Amino acid sequence: MDFFLSELVGTAVLTLFGCGVVANVLLAKSKGFNGGWIVIAFGWGLAVTFGVYVAGKYSGAHLNPALTIAFAMTGQLPWADVPVYIAGQMLGGILGGILTYLMYLPHWAETEDADLKLAVFCTQPAIKNTPANFLSEFLGTAVLMFGLSCIGANTFADGLNPLIVGFFILAIGLSLGGPTGYAINPARDLGPRIAHALMPIRGKRDSDWGYAWLPVIAPICGAITGAYLYAALVTPVAG
């Protein structure tokens, strides 16, 4: 499996499980209805875990354009590979969103709140405040990039690394996810948002394109900052 297909399939798995747990909690008459934030955070942690298990051997399992760009900025990935990685990630995000729609097909009509239907696919701020929302996504992704770099510097038993990463995503969700829903990944947010726009979801609202730029640009800026911070603080000490 080449790295384009690896990133596509891995991101689709991540998005299907991640958007799927949100659908399970938010959509009417689902078995997990009203399961709460802890269920969602655990679901997203496991979504990342198994996305990484799928793609890690073949592409390194970036599954996130912000990480891919940060790796290229710091010389860990050739720039020529970046468009191919991001294309796979974005298509995987769209595919995961479409599969979530199909999985919960009878539940869209049973759910009256159009905002909840949108929230299955993409993030929305709890309090709309553009500077604060940008800062939240920026900091969350900077922590993600810095933490992943620290995890990568450690040695774990063979095959355990994706599980550690999943617990790290869980920690981010539980601690930092409240303000904006912790997109921290342009493919995870924009891909399913596009799926929401494309799918014939009964009673849906617009896809909130006015906000859609923020969970793309802020995570990219945050990931680059986290990568350079790790290089500045940790690499000289290790060397």
Question: Which helices and strands, and how do they pair?
Answer:
Layout: H1 3-26, H2 37-59, H3 65-73, H4 82-103, H5 107-110, H6 114-121, H7 130-152, H8 161-176, H9 186-198, H10 209-212, H11 214-233, H12 235-238
Helix pairs in contact: 1-2, 1-4, 1-6, 2-8, 3-4, 3-11, 4-9, 7-8, 7-11, 9-11
**Overall average residue pLDDT:** 95
Q: What share of the residues lie within helices?
A: over 70%
Structural class: mainly alpha
Number of strands: 0
Note the main sheet. Answer: none
How would the global form be characterised?
globular
Order of helices and strands: HHHHHHHHHHHH
> How many helices in DSSP terms?
12
- What fraction strand? under 5%
Taking pLDDT < 50 over at least 5 consecutive residues as the criterion, the unreliable ranges are none
* Cα gyration radius (Å): 17 Å
Instruction: Note the gap between the termini.
Output: 34 Å
Structure write-up:
By secondary structure, the chain is mostly helical. It has 12 helices and no strands. The chain has helices at residues 3-26, 37-59, 65-73, 82-103, 107-110, 114-121, 130-152, 161-176, 186-198, 209-212, 214-233, 235-238. Helix 2 packs antiparallel against helix 8 and helix 4 crosses helix 9. The radius of gyration is 17 Å and the shape is globular. It starts with a helix and ends with a helix. The mean pLDDT is 95.
